[in-house]
Amino acid sequence: AQGAIENMLPYQRKLNKILTNFLSADLPIESPYIKAREVKRVAIVAFSSNTSLCGAFNANVIKMLLQTVGEFRTLGQDNILIFPVGKKVDEAAKRLGFQPQETSATRSDMKMYIAGEIDRVELIYHHFKSMGVQILLRETYLPIDLTHLVDGEEKEKEEEVQGGEIANDYIIEPSAEELIANLIPTVLSQKLFTAAVDSNASEHAARTLAMQVATDNANELIQDLTKQYNKSRQQAITNELLDIVGGSMQ
Predict the structure, then answer these.
(1) Residue 15 in contact with residue 190, Cβ under 8 Å?
(2) Can you give the pLDDT at residue 207?
(3) Is the N end or the C end of the chain the one with fewer CB atoms within 10 Å?
């Protein structure tokens, strides 16, 4: 799982850089994915695990989901759609009184956004940084936000767009407009897949850490109980010896 996300992230970042480079240039691009609308209906895609025993992994996702739902409460419950990926967040959505939507590879929300049925899509998932650190993220998936399309580390390396022209000397066929029209859905689909892989790696890391902590706690408990047992046993033997010595003296 760790290898999968570490191999996937460079590919995603490169795609994001290419897309950012094109969208930042002064090109006559029309795409339903980049147009912001008044938010009247929102979709929330949240990633969790299917089982427990992974520390606060699921609790943090559910807490973030509650916070996000709270921010959009003024829209009305019928205008907040939850797309759960994982049984734990699915159960949490039902406890909140929502009817979870079918995820079906979580692409249905893209179609609903194009059709104008929803005006905003939020992602909630864990980002795998290391075995000991998993960062809970909440990102705006749709409409595309250029300011968050590339993370902080990549922004420093990102090609600059000057004079309304594309920084890299790309050879584009058949046209930049048609390329971007095909590139945006590809980047969006790949983003969802990366979020799923990222969440999966984070879950395994959180579960490994939780089991290690549980093992350490169990070992400490065993040591404490062993000490108590030995002290009790030693005290019992001492009392027996005192009784024997006391009886012989009489």
Answers:
(1) yes
(2) 93
(3) C
The list of the chain residues with pLDDT below 70 reads 25-28, 103-108, 146-169, 248-250
> In this structure, are residues 20 and 155 in contact, taking their beta carbons and an 8 Å threshold?
no
Residue 169 pLDDT: 67
Cα of first residue to Cα of last residue in the chain, in angstroms, is: 75
3-class SS shares of the chain: helix, strand, coil, % to 5: 60, 10, 30
Please provide the DSSP assignment of 185-244 as one string: HHHHHHHHHHHHHHHHHHHHHHHHHHHHHHHHHHHHHHHHHHHHHHHHHHHHHHHHHHHH
Question: Beta-carbon neighbour count of residue 161 at 10 Å?
Answer: 17
Task: Tell me if residue 85 falls in helix, strand or coil.
Answer: strand
Which pLDDT score, from 0 to 100, does residue 33 have? Answer: 87
Task: Evaluate the CA torsion angle 209, 210, 212, 216 in order and state its sign.
Answer: positive
Q: What are the phi and psi torsion angles at 108 (to 5°)?
A: -65, -30
Four-residue CA torsion sign, 243, 247, 249, 250: positive
The predicted structure's pLDDT at residue 167: 56
Residues 211, 216, 217, 222: is their CA dihedral positive or negative?
positive
- How many Å is the Cα radius of gyration of the chain? 28
Neighbours of 152 (CB within 10 A): 7
DSSP-derived 3-state class of residue 134: strand
Query: What is the 8-class DSSP label of residue 115?
Result: T
Give the model's pLDDT for residue 147: 57
Distance CA 183, CA 18 (A): 9
Largest CA distance in the chain: 112
H or E element that contains 45: strand 42-47
Do the beta carbons of residue 50 and residue 85 sit within 8 Å?
no
